[in-house]
Amino acid sequence: MNKLFIHETAVVDEGAKIGSGTKVWHFSHVMGTAQIGENCVLGQNVFVGNKTVLGNNVKVQNNVSVYEGVVCEDDVFLGPSMVFTNVVNPRSAVNRKEEFKKTRVKKGSTIGANATIVCGITLGEYCFIGAGAVITKDVKPFALMVGVPARQKGWVSRSGAILGEDLVCPETGEKYILAGGYLKLLNE
Q1: How far is CA 100 from CA 26, 90, 97, in A?
Q2: What CA–CA distance (Å, rounded) separates 104 from 48?
C-alpha cells in the first residue's frame, strides 16, 4: 500500500480527507473540508478549496485552483494553470458566496493547460479540452473541444487518441458508434 506524501511546504488543514498513495507537492494548500481520493498527485502551488471532491487517480498539475463547488471524478487530468470559476458574475463589492455554481468533471476527462471552465457545467466522460480553450457550456462524453469560446472539433477515445471517420481508436483498437449525437464505446 502506498503511503500519503505531503511535502513540508504544503499546508493541509485539519479535517481534510486525503486517500492513500496521494502526493501533495510544494506550496500547495488543501482546505479542511476537501475530499481527495487515492493515488492523486497535486503539483506545485495547487489550491483545493472547501467542499471540493477529487476522485481516485486525479492528476492536478502546477498552479491550479480547484474552488468550492467543483467535483472531479476518477482519472481526471487538470493541466498546468487551467482555471475553474465558481461565480457567474463576480464583483468585488458584492458577496456571492451563497451563489457558487457546481461544476462536474466526469471520469477520465482531460483539461489542457491554461483552459478556462466557466462554472455550472458538466464535462462528459473522457472528453478532451484543448489547451487555452474556454468552456461555457456542457460538453458531451468523448468530445474534443478547442478554441474561444470552445467548439467541438471531433471525438477522442478513452485513451485520448483522436478518432477518425471509422471511430476506431488507433492506439487500442476500441470501436465506437455515434448514436443520437453522442459517441458510445461498443461492447462496454
Answers
A1: 28, 10, 6
A2: 15
CB 185 within 8 A of CB 174: yes
- For the chain (188 residues), the mean pLDDT of every run of 10, in chain order, is 93 98 98 98 98 98 97 98 93 88 97 98 98 98 98 98 98 97 90
- Residue 99's φ and ψ, nearest 5 degrees, are -110, 15
pLDDT of residue 1: 67
Q: Residue 11: which region, alpha, beta or left (left: phi > 0; alpha: psi -120 to 50)? A: beta
CA distances from 41 to 6, 18, 19, 156, 175 (A): 10, 11, 11, 24, 31
> Residue 55 corresponds to which cell in the numbers above?
476522485
